Amino acid sequence: MRxxxxxxxxxxCIGMLFGLASTAGAAGIKDGLKVAFVPKQINNPYEVxxxxxxxxxxxxxxxxxxxxxxxxxxxxxxxxxxxxxxxQHVDAIVIAANDPNAVVPYLKRAMERGIKVVTFDSDTAxxxxxxxxxxxxxxxxxxxxxQLTAGMIGNEGEFAILSATPNATNQNTWIGWMKExxxxxxxxxxxxxxxxxxxxxxxxxxxxxxxxxxxxPNLKAIIAPTSVGLAAAARYISSSPSKGKVVVTGxxxxxxxxxxxxxxxxxxxxxxxxxxxxxxxxxAAANLASGAISGKPGETFSAGKLGTRTIGKDGEVILxxxxxxxxxxxxxxxx
Length: 335
Ligand code: RAM
Known about the structure:
Rossmann fold; alpha/beta; 41% helix; 2 domains; 6-stranded parallel beta sheet; binds alpha-L-rhamnopyranose
């Protein structure tokens, strides 16, 4: 009899556990969370891959995901989308911000109404969000871009940067670290002659590349720390007399760069996995919206296939180290 009672009690406990598991999705995440992704711009293949990673995570934890955003990466182009999501009272907004400050008052308003905000890819000022999911350590990226370029031009010559928009937090942070790295004595003969902006617009980036080559006939390299800019610069150079003379490198997706690596225009470039970036950002948002974390340094959360992650200084979570792609490994990647 006692045995039977004990068994019944155990069954009740197990039932409670299962009961809990069915109302809370993956590892303490509530079911049915409404999570909205707001990319820098919707027609950029990099952003599409990142958003799809986010949607895959949302599906895993049984949430309700969507992607809304502008077609241009202008500083305040995301404001109207943030306001609509605030009115709809989604549970979380995951945004790659086009400007560190322009969106902050609107994101603050969303947070005041209980919506959790995660920035990923490109941060806002810390007041605009609870957590920033950073692709990789910004200092490493900036320094690595200079090291990669220096190695290809023998630490000597004029080079230009073809960036995204003048306001982009991520590119501006990386460029800041590139300038820091350039202060080292081994780069004394390398000269940054111009920072041009293609605004993450393919045509504009193409035209800016042409302008750089005309204005600086001795140019040895272009660094484009933007997937849109890098693909456009490589396309321009691949069919110009500068092919083989001007090094093109930066940050880009293997699928957009494969052709230019294979035809010899680009020897090497870098990136992380944008799909994993979106995936991690979705998990951070869901954990915030479930009350499992609040965004304080030292908190940990479970991020599905990416395991347990820790929130660092200023609410930053880092995905991992970047990858360098070249002719030898590019076919191993498909994004
Ligand atoms: C573009 C965007 C994005 C950046 C990548 C490398 O797609 O500017 O923010 O992270 O390039």
